């Protein structure tokens, strides 16, 4: 990997990390509604952790839509250079860098950027070991 691509990826990871922390904090503020009143899960973040650590249900798409909707709003708050870095760090951005040769402005690959953020959120959910999540998974 060229040094410039490494810098892009490092900068993108930094921005993604900041966004993912905000997404998780938002999900932790949303009350759990899809898992049922007797689930013991208190917020949407707990429900997502259960989905990722257990077996995803048909509800996964609703959680993914919630993540993407909030993340899309956060992307609108970023500067153009930050959006360009996130785009360049996607596989579509990597292909564009190979093909365009820097002759035109970097397009914003919104769907790919959102997909990357969903993956980051899922990775964090996989690592979350809160007691309420473990108890739910042990019970079901």
Structure description:
The chain has one domain. The chain has 140 residues and is mainly alpha-helical. The protein is built from seven helices and no strands. 72% of the residues lie in helices and 0% in strands. The radius of gyration is 17 Å and the shape is elongated.
Radius of gyration: 17 Å
Uncertain runs:
none
Give the number of helices.
7
How many extended strands?
0
Oligomer: single chain
Query: What share of residues is helical?
Result: over 70%
- Mean of pLDDT: 91
- Tell me the number of structural domains: 1
How would a textbook summarize the main sheet? none
Structural class: mainly alpha
- Anisotropy-based shape: elongated
Helix-strand pattern: HHHHHHH
Distance between the termini: 44 Å
Write the layout of secondary structure elements.
Blueprint: H1 3-29, H2 44-53, H3 60-77, H4 80-88, H5 91-100, H6 110-127, H7 131-139
Helix pairs in contact: 1-3, 1-4, 1-6, 2-6, 2-7, 3-6
Short synopsis of the structure:
This protein has 140 residues and is mainly α. The chain has 7 helices and no strands.
Search tags:
140 residues, mainly alpha, 7 helices
